[in-house]
Specification:
This protein has about 90 residues and is an all-alpha fold. It has two helices and no strands. Helix content is about 35%, strand content about 0%.
């Protein structure tokens, strides 16, 4: 690496020129990125796998709705039967 000011040879780890004191060029700034192709390379040996499907999820949602409807029907039947059950006086409200 050479000094941009005086042309002296610099160590790789030095941050300033030993001859003129000018800051050494940053090695990160002088790197040039390789140009990548616009189209990514296709790999035919890649195995595609299904990560998420909608069918099992909808199945559980519909099953949940069915359980909720069944619970509502059973609750309605149980609440209708309350008037036929003899409630002792110490449980009744004033």
């Amino acid at each position: 690496m050479q000094c941009t000011n005086c042309g002296a040879i610099l160590d790789e780890a030095s941050r300033f020129c030993k001859s003129c004191g000018a800051p050494a060029p940053d090695s990160e700034e002088t790197r040039i990125a390789r140009s990548s192709s616009a189209v990514p390379a296709r790999y035919d040996d890649d195995v595609e796998s299904v990560i998420f499907t909608v069918r099992p999820t909808l199945l559980f949602i519909k099953l949940g709705y069915a359980v909720a409807v069944l619970a509502a029907i059973l609750l309605t039947i149980l609440l209708a039967m309350v008037r036929f059950i003899d409630i002792p006086w110490y449980f009744s409200l004033p």
